[in-house]
């Protein structure tokens, strides 16, 4: 059995690894760590659960000295949840080496994150948007960074962070070491690697779920203008719990408008606030949603074992994306069905799918597909007591609690939003914390949103002119309502 010492990890880190329960290097660590410690650029195909975080953590702490004032390593991750998780792993491993790390991400106030950077850190972990913002403000200085890590590179490209990645990597001085980890090697990831990496070592320990006899694959030829009608036929054929994959968020939203009236439907795409995406996934897992319309942001990290059907409404251009999509069904010993709608121009892709899955895909019409009769008892929603709508309070002037002010935001019921969704939108677009947003008074064309006074101007600036579902959003400080006593005094 290979040991951590044998792959070049110093004793201070091997002790921490043992304390964390790491008995021996994982395959990705065996392949990546020696090359990384030697200073080579690296591109690794590895998913969550393979030990990839440990791989680059061991590389960073083995190569770079501890005790710096400015960061010597930058780790970029797609979501705040992943950034927090990575930072936690780094802190555990650093108990023996003395390295200091911190996480910066949107949705949290700048104060604590800025203070952590001011005290001095060796490794900064963060999401692309917040990292770029703090760099542009001069809060985060990258001129001493020696190594950059791109974690879940494919997912960051899916979420539209390519421009932010270009900015951040461009802000790091050359020569630098770049370590890229990705679950899939799409053309976008390959282009990114070619432009940012220098003569990289390649490691591949992907643990894609193999397509087995538990997943029956079908290809349904369609005209482009027939796809929506055919999708309805497929979903009406029995009672499946299904994921429908689309190429764009616009198509996800279009199909949602058509389907959600008649069936328990949800949607998932990269422009939704993280908190809302998590809520939709939870509802799908609990069978409150039975048809999930999604872009490829849901193709990984969606841990649901009772999906009966995957429909590729848009045939993916990359065979590996096809493999990830249909891997959401046929799990945990339960049979599943994967159906791909394809046009005549996309016929060649079916052969690519057969090659990567090492299995035959049966050509069929919608009528030839067997019905999926499944029982998924939904978890009933807790009934909520009736509440009288009240306009949110204006700024407090009595010194009790945090001062607040009310914004008038041009979103409401007419945009298909409820109070929670309006609050989530404000937090996400204005990059505010959980406690920065208070009550929401929901209107038809606009809503009143209570925010802390100290973030109100920033919120108005960030929200004004942003886009929601192709609509330009307006935001202003709401006019203060004149108290009754003042009205009476004026009349008298």
Short summary of the structure?
With 492 residues, the chain is an alpha/beta fold. It has helices at 11-19, 27-37, 52-63, 80-93, 110-119, 128-136, 153-158, 162-170, 187-196, 227-235, 249-259, 274-285, 319-326, 347-357, 419-430, 453-463, 484-491; strands spanning 42-45, 73-76, 101-104, 123-126, 147-150, 177-182, 201-204, 215-221, 242-245, 265-268, 291-294, 309-312, 336-342, 362-363, 404-409, 437-441, 447-452, 467-468, 471-472, 475-477. It has a 7-stranded parallel β-sheet with strand order 3-4-2-5-6-1-7, sandwiched between helices.
Describe this structure in words.
This protein has 492 residues and is an alpha/beta fold. It folds into three domains: 5-204, Rossmann fold (3-Layer(aba) Sandwich); 215-368, 3-Layer(aba) Sandwich (Rossmann fold), CATH 3.40.50.300; 404-483, Alpha-Beta Plaits, CATH 3.30.70. The chain has helices spanning 11-19, 27-37, 52-63, 80-93, 110-119, 128-136, 153-158, 162-170, 187-196, 227-235, 249-259, 274-285, 319-326, 347-357, 419-430, 453-463, 484-491; strands at residues 42-45, 73-76, 101-104, 123-126, 147-150, 177-182, 201-204, 215-221, 242-245, 265-268, 291-294, 309-312, 336-342, 362-363, 404-409, 437-441, 447-452, 467-468, 471-472, 475-477. The strands form four sheets. It has a seven-stranded parallel beta sheet with strand order 3-4-2-5-6-1-7, sandwiched between helices. Strands 10-11-9-12-13-8-14 form a seven-stranded parallel beta sheet, sandwiched between helices. Helix 3 packs across helix 4 (80-93). It is globular, with a radius of gyration of 25 Å. The model is unreliable at 381-401 and 482-492 (pLDDT under 50).
């Amino acid at each position: 059995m290979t040991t951590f010492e044998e792959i070049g990890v110093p004793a201070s880190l091997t002790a921490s690894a043992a304390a964390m329960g790491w008995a021996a290097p994982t395959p990705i660590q065996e392949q990546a760590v020696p090359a990384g410690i030697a200073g080579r650029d690296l591109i690794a195909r590895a998913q969550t659960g393979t030990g990839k975080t440990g791989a680059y953590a061991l590389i960073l702490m083995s190569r770079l000295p501890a005790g710096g004032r400015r960061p010597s390593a930058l780790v970029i991750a797609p979501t705040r949840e992943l950034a927090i998780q990575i930072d936690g792993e780094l802190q555990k491993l650093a108990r023996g080496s003395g390295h200091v790390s911190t996480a910066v991400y949107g949705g949290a106030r700048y104060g604590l994150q800025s203070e952590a950077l001011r005290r001095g850190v060796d490794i900064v972990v963060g999401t692309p948007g917040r990292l770029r913002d703090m760099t542009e403000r001069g809060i985060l200085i990258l001129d001493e960074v020696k190594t950059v890590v791109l974690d879940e590179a494919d997912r960051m490209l899916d979420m539209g962070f390519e421009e932010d990645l270009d900015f951040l990597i461009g802000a790091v001085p050359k020569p630098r070491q770049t370590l890229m980890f990705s679950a899939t090697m799409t053309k976008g990831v390959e282009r990114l690697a070619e432009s940012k990496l220098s003569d990289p070592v390649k490691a591949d320990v992907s643990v894609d779920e193999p397509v087995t006899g538990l997943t029956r694959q079908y290809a349904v030829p369609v005209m482009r203008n027939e796809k929506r009608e055919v999708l309805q036929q497929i979903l009406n054929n029995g009672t499946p719990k299904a994921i429908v994959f689309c190429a764009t968020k616009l198509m996800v939203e279009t199909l949602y408008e058509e389907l959600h009236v008649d069936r328990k439907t949800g949607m998932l795409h990269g422009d939704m606030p993280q908190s809302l995406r998590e809520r939709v996934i939870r509802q799908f897992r609990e069978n409150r949603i039975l048809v999930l319309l999604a872009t490829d942001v849901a193709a990984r990290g969606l841990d649901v074992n009772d999906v009966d059907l995957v429909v590729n409404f848009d045939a993916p251009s990359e065979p590996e994306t096809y493999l990830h999509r249909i891997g959401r069904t046929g799990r945990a010993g339960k049979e599943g069905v994967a159906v791909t709608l394809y046009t005549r121009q996309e016929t060649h892709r079916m052969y690519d799918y057969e090659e990567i899955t090492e299995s035959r895909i049966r050509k069929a019409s919608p009528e030839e597909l067997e019905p999926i009769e499944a029982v998924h008892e939904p978890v009933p929603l807790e009934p909520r007591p009736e509440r009288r709508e009240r306009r949110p309070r204006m700024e407090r002037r009595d010194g009790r609690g945090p001062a607040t002010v009310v914004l008038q935001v041009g979103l409401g019921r007419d945009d298909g939003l409820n109070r929670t969704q309006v609050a989530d939108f404000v937090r996400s677009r204005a990059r505010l914390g959980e406690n920065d947003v208070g009550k929401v008074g929901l209107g038809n064309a606009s809503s009143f949103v209570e925010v802390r006074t100290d973030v109100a101007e920033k919120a108005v600036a960030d929200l004004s002119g942003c886009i929601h579902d192709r609509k330009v959003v307006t935001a202003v400080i709401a006019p203060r309502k004149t108290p009754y006593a003042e009205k009476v005094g004026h009349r008298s």
